[in-house]
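Thread: Newbie trying to understand structure tokens

Hi all, I'm a second-year student working on a class project, and my supervisor (Dr. K.) asked me to get a predicted structure for one chain before our next meeting. I've only ever worked with sequences, so writing a 3D structure as a token string is new to me. If someone could post the tokens and maybe explain what I'm looking at, I'd be very grateful. Here's the chain:
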Amino acid sequence: MSRPGVFITLEGIEGAGKTTQVGRILEFMESQGYECISTREPGGTGIGAKIRAILLNSEHVTLAPLAELLLYEADRAQHLARLIKPALEAGKCVVCDRFCDATTAYQGYARELSLDFINELHARILDGLTPDLTLLFDLPAEIGLSRAKTRLHEQNNTSQEGRFEAEDLAFHRKVRQGYLTLAKAEPGRFAIVNADAAPDRVWEETKELLAEFTAKRNLA
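---
Reply by user tm_fold:
Sure, no problem. This is what the structure looks like when written as tokens:
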């Protein structure tokens, strides 16, 4: 009998260190017998990469919040149809850097667009699909934002992918609070990782959560 697919999503504010942990997460899940792929939102497909270039470019300061939301959802619809759902149906483990919770946190709680409307879009686009595990890398907004700006400067990428880092601290605090609200509402799906630590310590905590998750899944 083929193993069912597993969908793991990584969430957190800018500078939370999600991307740093992706490779280790893939290695761990592969050690548990899964064939894994990693992806991200926005930009997990060829079309998505073009949408990402619009969404994250710091020159696009006039992008309206509703247009921003709909671009994220268009990216997600393409991502699900062309990558995520086929991989899960093939029994793979999909590790995705950001997913629908990011939209709720950023465009819902921080941009203050209608949560009911966002939930309606998600119901239509996700069609019942929910991540099996969402790892929320949490830390104070001022620390995450400082890290993110430093990273962009070091990569000389402030123009192409710095639009959200240019938002003020109040915005990023709203994003963080939105994430924590979502995690409190779905404790069975979310696992919170203390991201205000060195990468190796963050990984140790992450690994413990993954081990607990896979053990429960194997028992089920």
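A couple of things are worth pointing out once you decode it. The two ends are 15 Å apart (CA to CA). The longest helix spans residues 65-89. Feel free to ask follow-ups in this thread.
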